[in-house]
Design brief:
about 375 residues, Deoxyhypusine Synthase, 15 helices, 11 strands, about 50% helix
Length: about 375
Amino acid sequence: MANRHNFLSGTSIDPKPVTGSMTVADLVESAFLAYNAARLREACQLFVEKMLEEDVTIGMSLTGALTPAGLGMSAIIPLIENGFVDWIVSTGANVYHDTHFGIGLKMHRGNAQISDVVLFKEGVVRIYDIFFEYDVLLSTDEFYRKMIEGPEFQRDMSSAEFHYLAGKYVAERERVLGIEGKSLLAAAHNAAVPIYTSSPGDSSIGMNVAAKALTGNKLRFDVNADVNETAAIVLNAKRSNGKSGVLIFGGGSPKNFLLQTEPQIQEVLKIEEKGHDYFLQVTDARPDTGGLSGATPSEAVSWGKIDPDRLPDAVVCYLDSTIGLPIITSYALARHKPRKLKRLYDRRDGMMKLLTDEHARAMSR
């Protein structure tokens, strides 16, 4: 029977045997051929072949306890330092737990089957199979409370401003202790990668800021600045004849905050735009429950979040971020040279002016 269709045009499944000498990139390309492994291969290739072009601005969202598992050091810092991530939206918890490492505190691998009653009595805190002393929390709280007493913190500021200043202090603590390279907060400061927290009060950092406010501290998070600055980053990418890509690990509020930049531009500010160009998500959430964490890129099109013409450049991997993040990072480092740092934090004023001017023109029409 003549082959009158195109259904069998895909590469034949005929992999070489896996060997001990294969690199991660080789393994992904040769053995990740079907099911969620194939989606992970497609994600790696989308990231390297399209998203890492020089004209693409990449925003990354981080949800779930990734930094306690060491992924800040093992994967996120290399992405930052090689110019593979230009701005970040994270839960406050990831930033807080990242700080433990940067100020010389320890977290340990543990056994999730140990009684939590016993751990509580012994002063040990558990994040599934990660154990650490309760004093780690107290010491990190004290670090933040002391830091925000400084005069530069006595004002309203975006969460990106706060994290940039905090990163300076964490980087200095790393230098003094001789442990450089432990904190993504410090790495982001050095690379001028802005880090936003979509819910700044929803973490131990926010709790300590709120506590200091009771005794007269003037630090306030300006959530309006966060919304507009992130929209300005995306608009600047597009108006510079470039593209916008989103790299999403997990879901939740950081995912939405990353994606809502386009509705903020189009729906609210009335500026003509079409949506993000590239969408790559690693999640264990299902789409059929209606939650944002599992919402597909095609659903995001209906909100104006994703350019409908770019849906072929969208990949969702249904797996644990602690698996997907290091594999994508390793693949990218093996298959793409470092990019020049965009240093978006240093360019916030110019990007905000562009956003303000375009909004004013849109409202005058």
